[in-house]
From TrEMBL, chain A:
Protein name per its UniProtKB record: Vacuolar fusion protein MON1 homolog
Signal peptide positions on this chain: none
A Gene Ontology term for the protein's cellular component: Mon1-Ccz1 complex
Highest classification ranks of the organism: Eukaryota, Metazoa, Chordata, Craniata, Vertebrata
Family named by the database record: Belongs to the MON1/SAND family.
Span list, region Disordered: 1-82, 115-137
Originating organism: Sphenodon punctatus (Tuatara)
TrEMBL record, chain B:
Molecular function terms, GO-annotated: GDP binding; GTP binding; GTPase activity
One Pfam family linked to the record: Ras
Record flagged with keyword rRNA-binding: no
Keywords, in A-Z order: Cytoplasmic vesicle, Endosome, GTP-binding, Lipoprotein, Membrane, Nucleotide-binding, Prenylation
CDD domains: Rab5_related (cd01860)
Cross-referenced InterPro entries: P-loop_NTPase, Small_GTP-bd, Small_GTPase
GO cellular component: actin cytoskeleton; early endosome; Golgi apparatus; phagocytic vesicle membrane; plasma membrane
PROSITE patterns in UniProt: RAB, RAS
Chief localization: membrane
Membrane topology per record: Lipid-anchor
Protein name: RAB22A, member RAS onco family
Amino acid sequence: MAADVHKKKSWEVSNGLLAPADGQHVAERSESPTPGLAQGTEPGAGQEGAMFVHTRSYEDLTSSEDGGAASQSPEEGQGDQDDQIKMEQISKDFSELSTQLTGVVLDFEEEMRQSKDDKLDLSPQTSRHDSVLSGKEEEDVTMDAWRMHQKHVFVLSEAGKPVYSRYGSEEALSSTMGVMMALVSFLEAEKNAIRSIHADGYKVVFVRRSPLVLVAVARTRQSEQDIAHELLYIYYQILSLLTWTQLNHIFQQKQNYDLRRLLAGSERITDNLLDLMARDPSFLMGAARCLPMAAGVRDAVSTSLQQARAKSLVFSILLSRNQLVSLVRKKDQFLHPIDLHLLFNLISSSSSFREGEAWTPICLPKFNSCGFFHAHISYLEQDTDLCLLLVSTDREDFFTVSDCKRRFQERLKKRGVYHALREALLTPFYSVSQVGISDLRHFIYKSKSSGLFTSPEIEAPYVSEEEKERLLGLYQYLHSRAHNSSRPLKNIYFTGQNENLLAWVTSAFELYVCFSPLTTKAAAVGAVNKLMKWIRREEDHLFILMPQTY
Amino acid sequence: MALRELKVCLLGDTGVGKSSIVWRFVEDSFDPNINPTIGASFMTKTVQYQNELHKFLIWDTAGQERFRALAPMYYRGSAAAIIVYDITKEETFSTLKNWVKELRQHGPPNIVVAIAGNKCDLNDVREVMEKDAKDYADSIHAIFVETSAKNAININELFIEISRRIPLTDTNPSSSGKGFKLRRQPSVTKRSCC
């Protein structure tokens, strides 16, 4: 199977800093076969600094915090709390950062008092909400079909109460979740922590983020590490709805609180996130995919976006179908790719944004898990799904922000780029044949310093959804081998029955390439060099090289 | 023609059809698989009422528990509130009564309250009697109407009634009588409405 592997250099010092590498990390010039590709100089690296918090977010998730996953009682929630402190530092500038929905907390306390009297009343009400809102028929958990799912995800509270189940109703699973909690507590009593169970082709992965426990039961080829990574995304998804502060406050007040009450109606967002993670390599890459577009057009769009600013705005993001068109940020404020993915997921999960202008509180947990931002979401064009997302610190600022939208649209028209933008939106993918390498079927290239990746359209033979997911599964496999914390790899050549794949991970970029099964290793290596040259030539089309700030 | 801006917010339990009512009114469309609103959604529609143009500025709020605390932001600046319940679900009518109480306590003093019993096309599975709801509405001097966003029943009528009830002085205290022209208000005033 996998042959030709080199051990990775131990350059991977955990960069816990929230400041991005500004293209100045020339020191890390490795013995990579492409000299000059130090971080910040690889194809796709932004010329004016990055847009995102610089993290290899994958490791960022699994290493710096994974320690916390082992055993995290409320007192020793170190990972998160350390983050907290850093977060607070950044947000210091935001004097007007509007934070908690204090009202919710107040209401909540009142409700606590009430619920002592009518405890029984709560659960039937919640279940009603579920059935109204999830909009899908709940599956019977005793059926074989339920057992056959590729990946189950469960979220429960430390009291063993169900919070979320990907398939089937939470009520029907409450005893199963009780068993899960019993397993977790049993090992914790001995100061141990359960991380995973491997049996019968299944991996059962546990992630502990007090006050929640997240469990996945998977039959996929993903590594334990990758599955834990996905569970963390679910955890962040829940934080984005409630904030870390509120979540903790609730369970401090009442350990056996039924969190489904507050999360009612959000099941769809979590479901969508799980589906998206199985389809979209953005999550695996920890990066955003750019919509390919002529550099001049993109610059004009970015400038229009930059000019339509308001005092309370922190990020202005233009996207179409989970692809980034432009991102303008407040100077010195960086968005974490995970937060961007949560925003993309939110938008793609609900059709309710398609009409009118939405205004909703949202917590960006990697930016500041204690407070809410307020997001203005509106579709500018229905047919191309062009969507504008404006992130503000002030919940009372709707009309000012709404005016920014109007001004942005006016400027776009004035600059005469509307038409060119539309053209680009109508051709959101490029064909791999443009690279001009026979036997090359598909690739994913990520520039680490910009946090962006590019990838051609997935073409034949990966036509069906199953085949597409299988290809992504192969990338996931290579990715997990390359990023295995105990034995990371730099180069992998994988020979399979239906295709050959090559992975190349350096300090500056990551490249995953899929070839036809007829190619040879030597040909593949030659092709990769050609591919790198092509990406370099096209970089201003494929990436955002000139990110703007206001 | 004179233009008046009327700020209206929709309140009520989740799943009763607040967004469907707004969609029917603004777009004259209906989607049976509509997703729950997230946060709140803002839409406008201008209609002719007698010899004036009425521009409705509509805040469609999310009915879910976790957005509950945001509601004051929307009803505070509203001239009218439409509280919606589902005639096939008794509990949603109880929620409605809580909303009325909250508006009485914290809402603007002269807010026009309209009660809409939605999904009246589902008469077979009705749980709330029209008479009970009507009596309740009368007791609090609220507009009452049973609606169906699906079949476009009483939706326009609901907004027309609101047009009729909102006193002129409410939208523009400085002018009285007819024929005045209300410009887009300065943003300071605007802010207070959300």
